[in-house]
UniProtKB/TrEMBL annotation:
<dbReference type="Pfam" id="PF16192">
    <property type="entry name" value="PMT_4TMC"/>
</dbReference>
<comment type="similarity">
    <text>Belongs to the glycosyltransferase 39 family.</text>
</comment>
<dbReference type="InterPro" id="IPR032421">
    <property type="entry name" value="PMT_4TMC"/>
</dbReference>
<dbReference type="GO" id="GO:0005789">
    <property type="term" value="C:endoplasmic reticulum membrane"/>
</dbReference>
<keyword id="KW-0472">Membrane</keyword>
<comment type="pathway">
    <text>Protein modification; protein glycosylation.</text>
</comment>
<feature type="transmembrane region" description="Helical">
    <location>
        <begin position="73"/>
        <end position="94"/>
    </location>
</feature>
<dbReference type="InterPro" id="IPR036300">
    <property type="entry name" value="MIR_dom_sf"/>
</dbReference>
<feature type="region of interest" description="Disordered">
    <location>
        <begin position="1"/>
        <end position="25"/>
    </location>
</feature>
<dbReference type="Pfam" id="PF02815">
    <property type="entry name" value="MIR"/>
</dbReference>
<feature type="transmembrane region" description="Helical">
    <location>
        <begin position="611"/>
        <end position="628"/>
    </location>
</feature>
<feature type="transmembrane region" description="Helical">
    <location>
        <begin position="198"/>
        <end position="231"/>
    </location>
</feature>
<dbReference type="InterPro" id="IPR003342">
    <property type="entry name" value="ArnT-like_N"/>
</dbReference>
<feature type="domain" description="MIR">
    <location>
        <begin position="306"/>
        <end position="362"/>
    </location>
</feature>
<keyword id="KW-0256">Endoplasmic reticulum</keyword>
<feature type="domain" description="MIR">
    <location>
        <begin position="436"/>
        <end position="493"/>
    </location>
</feature>
<feature type="transmembrane region" description="Helical">
    <location>
        <begin position="673"/>
        <end position="692"/>
    </location>
</feature>
Length: 722
């Protein structure tokens, strides 16, 4: 009779499957889900009306919601969905769009702001049940899902970020919706093409569109789902029992639901955005003249102008860089020591008579305004002269250095009554056109190349000092790299000898508007700079909870709200991330060296790596890219990654506790130890929330740096400023 083999130790989960988490009792699931959902909503809606004034970025996103209600066009660096939903929530709750949202601290008075705050709080509250269900699906462990839920419920940072009119809770709602849908779809892999499989696959696509439609960082969750899909398809391709026809159906289903559907919805968001915002507003100047002509109230709307540029025409030129302004001059001269003391040429962001120029031949002073003189069109490659209509000086450049931009040449107004010198000559070129082609108003993108020096006329984007009336610097750059700074288009065009056409003929297509809006948003994002006295941060600050953000109030007499994560939770997440990577490395090394793992270690590494792998990948994708970004960064950018680290904490600690308790005997003792440590973790989270909850719900009185402050003992890091 062969010797009896040793039975593996049973974990605290009981005799069902030794050492491995068993599915929670069916009756416990809805009760637990109801509990965490109720706690989540209670924590987010508690004291939601406070403070009754504008807090932090509500000044931006509340104002943009008002723009939608008033149908006023504006510009923002993010896609439109989040602001549209905020505006819709305000409209449905009775807000009339009249509050100006000028600056933080402005009181709402009689204006109804609760609909917009309540909408954001609702979506922020949904993050907890979404995370709970995701962890439950990945780990099949009710305690892991509950621990994750308690972490997110009692995190002061998540509460604060959910209680105000911001894009963050909307972004994280769609992000977590996409992750939950992806995990649910994976669980249906054994029954492909069933109703539930199609539902979760399609819902994943809808949530991807939502995440992309709120902020461009929604692309990180698109990448997560994309990598998961590639893995699934690769696994299916290796299944020899699956026919190529069936594999083709799997591929097509994913293309339709995860590529075509999100792109269609994303495009539809912009169609609605442009249809609603049909009135001229503060965002006009960021877009092309052709686009502006479609906005009611804009000076280009419903006007008729000559289509092709001709000599003798009076024109305005608009720079194509974001907020580049109109080519402008005035009687004022450059001051002593700033290049040649000649007439200033700048870029001006507003409509003005000093933006008008007359286009003339470089070698002729013929009066082209004479109605009897023949019309001669300007063509690509022509050498021209631009005469400022108000001062009769020519657009001029020379090898004196520009006022602000080093190694660029100064641009001035020179000459008397149009008579100057050879430094007034410019060659006009149209992007993508051949020599001799006519130049269209609004549509043609042109550059002016200085004949004598070969430099290109451009707007640097830098603001001149008070002697330049704080207008934008215009230079002539010797660097021939094509950028929006050096491209222009003709906007106003006056020539009595030419027939006028309606600007509707030049109306850009929806595809052109969509492309232009994305180019403007991308340029705006990359150009974001911190404001004066604004608290920015670096990505390495975020996981350690190094520094928060003031949402409201500065002094001890103010109602203060401070965005900071619950330190116990955030540092627990940080420790867990280290433990996870340690388990991963140790397992990989052991397998590489052929070490035979014990049953318990196999179960531990299997549960942690299998359940936490996708979560860790999500954390990496939502955190590491910020190290490569050149734009200004803030603490709140980390919160999507924090959702993933919190889910990983729930899975990892549940598995570790079960692994450790599995060495105890009998099983009742193991369960008691497991339950006791689990309860201690939850109580620690609750107590830390009790200590730090004033950060979210408001503080009045002495600052934490004052020994008499009730928060004095809680300033654990000098960088915390509450």
């Amino acid at each position: 009779m062969p010797p009896r083999q040793r039975e593996p130790r049973r974990g605290p989960g009981g005799p069902g499957r030794p050492g491995r988490p068993t599915a929670p009792p069916v009756a416990a699931r809805p009760a637990a889900l109801a509990l965490v959902t109720l706690l989540s909503f209670a924590s987010r809606f508690h004291r939601l009306p406070e403070p009754p004034h504008v807090c932090w970025d509500e000044t931006h996103f509340g104002k943009m919601g008002s723009y939608y209600i008033n149908r006023t066009f504006f510009f923002d660096v993010h896609p439109p969905l989040g602001k549209m939903l905020i505006g819709l929530a305000g409209y449905l709750s009775g807000y009339d769009g009249t509050f100006p949202f000028q600056k933080p601290g402005d009181r709402y008075e009689q204006h109804n702001y609760m609909g917009m705050r309540g909408f954001c709080a609702f979506l922020g509250s949904c993050l907890v049940p979404f995370a709970y269900l995701t962890v439950l699906e990945l780990s099949k462990s009710l305690p892991a899902a509950l621990l994750t839920a308690f972490i997110l419920i009692f995190d002061t940072g998540c509460i604060t970020l959910s209680q105000y009119i911001l894009l963050d809770p909307i972004l994280m709602f769609f992000l977590m919706g996409a992750v939950l849908s992806m995990v649910k779809c994976n669980s249906c892999a054994d029954r492909p093409f069933s109703a539930s499989w199609w539902f979760w696959l399609s819902l994943t696509g809808v949530n991807l569109a939502g995440a992309m439609g709120v902020k461009f960082v929604g692309l990180f969750v698109v990448l997560l789902v994309g990598l998961n899909t590639i893995y699934d398809l690769w696994d299916l391709l290796g299944n020899l029992s699956l026919s190529l026809v069936m594999f083709g159906k799997h591929l097509l289903a994913r293309v339709l639901c995860l590529i075509v559907l999100p792109l269609a919805l994303y495009t539809a968001m912009f169609a609605v955005h442009f249809a609603v915002l049909n009135k001229s507003g503060p965002g006009d100047g960021f877009f092309s003249s052709a686009f502006q002509s479609q906005l009611i109230g804009n000076n280009l709307h419903n006007v008729s102008i000559p289509e092709h540029l001709a000599y003798g025409s009076v024109i305005t030129m608009k720079n194509l860089r974001m907020a580049g302004g109109y080519l402008h001059s005035h009687w004022h001269l450059y001051p002593e020591g700033i290049g040649a003391r000649q007439q200033q040429v700048t870029a001006y962001l507003h409509k003005d008579l000093n933006n008008l120029w007359i286009i003339k031949k470089h070698d002729s002073d013929t009066d082209l305004s004479d109605p009897l003189s023949p019309v001669e069109f300007v063509r690509h490659g022509d050498i021209i002269r631009l005469e400022h209509k108000e001062t009769s000086r020519n657009l001029h450049s020379h090898q004196h250095e520009a006022p602000l931009t080093r190694k660029h040449f100064q641009v001035t107004g020179y000459g008397i009554n149009g008579t100057g010198d050879s430094n007034d000559f410019w060659r006009i070129e149209v992007v993508g056109r051949k020599t001799g082609k006519l130049i269209k108003v609004l549509r043609s993108q042109i550059r002016l190349i200085h004949v004598a020096t070969g430099c290109i006329l451009g707007s640097s984007g830098k603001t001149l000092p008070k002697w330049g009336w704080e207008q934008v610097e215009v230079t002539c750059t010797p660097y021939l790299k094509e950028t929006p700074n050096s491209l222009w288009n003709f906007e106003d065009h006056i020539n009595p000898k030419l027939p006028n056409i309606s600007l509707d003929v030049l109306k850009p297509s929806f595809a052109e508007i969509l492309l232009e809006s994305h180019m403007v948003m991308i340029r705006g994002n990359s150009g974001l700079k911190p404001k004066d006295n604004e608290v920015t941060s670096k990505p390495w600050h975020w996981p350690i909870n190094y520094q928060g953000l003031r949402f409201s109030g500065v002094n001890e007499t103010d109602y203060r709200v401070y965005l900071l994560g619950n330190p116990v939770i955030w540092w627990l997440n940080l420790v867990t991330m280290g433990l996870y990577f340690l388990i991963t490395v140790c397992t990989a090394v052991a397998l590489k060296r052929g070490v035979q793992l014990t049953y318990e270690l196999k179960e531990l590494s299997g549960v942690v790596l299998r359940g936490g792998g996708q979560i860790t990948l999500g954390w990496l994708l939502h955190y590491l890219p910020f190290f490569m970004m050149g734009r200004v960064l803030y603490f709140h950018h980390y919160f999507p990654a924090m959702l993933f680290s919190s889910m990983l904490t729930g899975i990892t600690w549940d598995s570790l506790l079960k692994f450790c308790a599995g060495f105890l005997s009998p099983s009742t003792t193991a369960r008691k130890v497991y339950g006791g440590v689990f309860l201690a973790l939850v109580l620690l989270i609750l107590y830390s929330f009790y200590l730090f909850h004033p950060l979210s719900y408001g503080m009045i009185g002495p600052m934490a740096s004052d020994p008499s402050s009730p928060m004095a003992g809680l300033r654990w890091m000098d960088s915390w400023e509450f």
